[in-house]
Design brief:
By secondary structure, the protein is mainly α. It has one domain (1-64). It contains one helix and no strands. The chain has one helix at 30-60. The mean pLDDT is 86. It binds zinc ion (ZN).
Amino acid sequence: MSAGPVCLYCQGSNPPGQTSCRHCGMPLPATAAHAEQRRLRRFTGFCIGLTLFCVAMFFWLPRS
Ligand SMILES: [Zn+2]
Protein backbone atom coordinates (compact mmCIF):
# COMPACT_ATOMS: atom_id res chain seq x y z
CA MET A 1 0.00 0.00 0.00
CA SER A 2 3.03 2.26 0.50
CA ALA A 3 3.62 4.69 -2.34
CA GLY A 4 7.28 5.17 -1.47
CA PRO A 5 10.22 4.01 -3.55
CA VAL A 6 11.10 0.33 -3.55
CA CYS A 7 14.73 -0.64 -2.96
CA LEU A 8 16.37 -2.29 -5.96
CA TYR A 9 18.65 -4.36 -3.71
CA CYS A 10 16.39 -5.78 -1.01
CA GLN A 11 12.96 -4.99 -2.55
CA GLY A 12 11.98 -3.27 0.69
CA SER A 13 9.44 -0.48 0.61
CA ASN A 14 10.42 2.93 1.90
CA PRO A 15 8.48 6.04 2.89
CA PRO A 16 8.19 8.70 0.19
CA GLY A 17 11.01 11.21 0.09
CA GLN A 18 13.56 8.72 1.44
CA THR A 19 16.93 8.94 -0.30
CA SER A 20 18.45 5.74 1.09
CA CYS A 21 16.91 2.39 1.94
CA ARG A 22 15.92 2.07 5.57
CA HIS A 23 16.42 -1.70 5.40
CA CYS A 24 19.85 -2.09 3.81
CA GLY A 25 21.08 1.51 3.59
CA MET A 26 21.65 1.49 -0.16
CA PRO A 27 20.79 4.70 -2.04
CA LEU A 28 17.34 4.57 -3.54
CA PRO A 29 16.78 5.32 -7.22
CA ALA A 30 15.78 8.98 -7.22
CA THR A 31 14.59 8.69 -10.80
CA ALA A 32 11.89 6.20 -9.86
CA ALA A 33 9.85 8.81 -8.05
CA HIS A 34 10.33 11.25 -10.92
CA ALA A 35 9.29 8.61 -13.45
CA GLU A 36 6.20 7.92 -11.39
CA GLN A 37 5.36 11.62 -11.32
CA ARG A 38 5.94 11.91 -15.07
CA ARG A 39 3.75 8.89 -15.71
CA LEU A 40 1.01 10.35 -13.52
CA ARG A 41 1.25 13.70 -15.31
CA ARG A 42 1.03 12.01 -18.71
CA PHE A 43 -2.01 10.07 -17.54
CA THR A 44 -3.64 13.27 -16.25
CA GLY A 45 -2.94 14.99 -19.56
CA PHE A 46 -4.43 12.04 -21.40
CA CYS A 47 -7.60 12.22 -19.27
CA ILE A 48 -7.92 15.97 -19.89
CA GLY A 49 -7.44 15.44 -23.63
CA LEU A 50 -10.03 12.68 -23.64
CA THR A 51 -12.50 14.91 -21.78
CA LEU A 52 -11.94 17.76 -24.23
CA PHE A 53 -12.38 15.33 -27.11
CA CYS A 54 -15.69 14.09 -25.65
CA VAL A 55 -16.92 17.67 -25.13
CA ALA A 56 -15.95 18.57 -28.70
CA MET A 57 -17.73 15.48 -30.02
CA PHE A 58 -20.79 16.30 -27.91
CA PHE A 59 -21.14 19.70 -29.57
CA TRP A 60 -19.89 18.63 -33.00
CA LEU A 61 -22.06 15.57 -33.57
CA PRO A 62 -25.70 16.18 -34.52
CA ARG A 63 -28.24 15.59 -31.82
CA SER A 64 -31.12 13.26 -32.59
ZN1 LIG B 1 17.21 -1.98 0.57
